[in-house]
């Protein structure tokens, strides 16, 4: 102005400048970052479900025909040393135990189930993991006893007696010198049967909850809010002082 006084007017230039815009942009960035962290945390938590087992349980071979195996559990941080290291369980070779091996001077080997381990993840196919080895492992590393064949009981069919309907004689009095005629009326017994109502079947579905679904949802919401706030801040008109 001519008199040197200042006045305020709206500037529609882009990008706008000012403390308000910087504050909104900062809030938007923090909101979007929080949402991103929540989404990534949820994704990382879902991956834990498929991680390697905490420990490995195996059947360690002994030199006894009475107790040919004992249960041994290996911690995750000891797998490399106690299973794959020098003299580790993976080196305990030999067939699955049977009562004739000791007399032949043959040592039997450990029974180790397959498992994943290490970082990066490695897969181990197991040792002596056949039908005999699995049966011993599933029995707590004890030799399963002989199975007794099941006997099927013989049932005798039940004979239902058949009842004979009773015939009730009905006599008719004689009239006009006519000898009386006796008529017999047979009334069969009424058999009624009713089928019991069959209850309607209820189908119970299996529902697998989605891991960290709530955390993912809130993360997406925060990311969207941060993006919208950033867009509004970018279009926000600011005031500037013009002399």
Structural account:
By secondary structure, this protein is α+β, with helices and mostly antiparallel strands. Among the domains are: 13-45 and 214-242; 56-138, no CATH class. It is 27% helix and 15% strand. The chain is built from 4 helices and 8 strands. It has helices at residues 19-48, 79-82, 131-138, 213-235; strands at 7-11, 56-61, 69-74, 115-117, 122-124, 168-171, 182-185, 238-242. A two-stranded antiparallel sheet has the order 1-8. The longest helix is centred in the N-terminal third of the chain and has 30 residues, at 19-48. It is flat. The chain starts with 6 loop residues before the first strand and ends with a strand. The model is unreliable at 45-50, 175-184, 190-196 and 198-210 (pLDDT under 50).
In short:
By secondary structure, this protein is α+β, with helices and mostly antiparallel strands.
Keywords for this structure?
two-stranded antiparallel ribbon, single chain, two-stranded antiparallel sheet, 243 residues, alpha+beta, 8 strands
Which strand order does the major sheet show? 1-8
Structural Rg? 44 Å
Largest sheet report: 2 strands, antiparallel
Strand segment count: 8
Write the layout of secondary structure elements.
Layout: E1 7-11, H1 19-48, E2 56-61, E3 69-74, H2 79-82, E4 115-117, E5 122-124, H3 131-138, E6 168-171, E7 182-185, H4 213-235, E8 238-242
Helix pairs in contact: 1-4
């Amino acid at each position: 102005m001519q008199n040197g006084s200042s006045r305020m007017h709206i500037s529609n230039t882009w990008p706008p400048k000012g403390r308000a815009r910087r504050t909104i942009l900062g809030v938007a960035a923090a909101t979007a970052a929080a949402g991103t962290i929540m989404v990534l945390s949820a994704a990382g938590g879902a991956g834990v479900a498929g991680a390697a087992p905490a420990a490995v349980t195996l059947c360690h071979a002994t030199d006894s025909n009475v107790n040919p195996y004992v249960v041994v559990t290996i911690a995750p941080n000891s797998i490399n040393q106690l299973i794959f290291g020098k003299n580790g369980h993976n080196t305990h070779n030999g067939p699955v135990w049977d009562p004739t091996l000791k007399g032949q001077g043959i040592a039997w080997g450990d029974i180790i189930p397959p498992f994943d381990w290490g970082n990066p993840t490695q897969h181990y196919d197991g040792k002596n993991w056949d039908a005999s080895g699995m049966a011993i492992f599933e029995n707590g590393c004890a030799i399963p006893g002989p199975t007794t064949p099941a006997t099927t009981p013989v049932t005798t069919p039940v004979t239902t007696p058949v009842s004979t309907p009773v015939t009730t004689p009905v006599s008719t009095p004689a009239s006009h010198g006519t000898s009386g005629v006796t008529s017999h009326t047979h009334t069969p017994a009424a058999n009624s049967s009713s089928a019991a109502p069959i209850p309607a079947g209820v189908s119970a579905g299996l529902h697998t909850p989605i891991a960290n679904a709530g955390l993912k949802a809130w993360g997406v919401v925060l990311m969207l809010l941060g993006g919208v706030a950033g867009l509004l801040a970018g279009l926000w008109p600011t005031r500037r002082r013009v002399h």
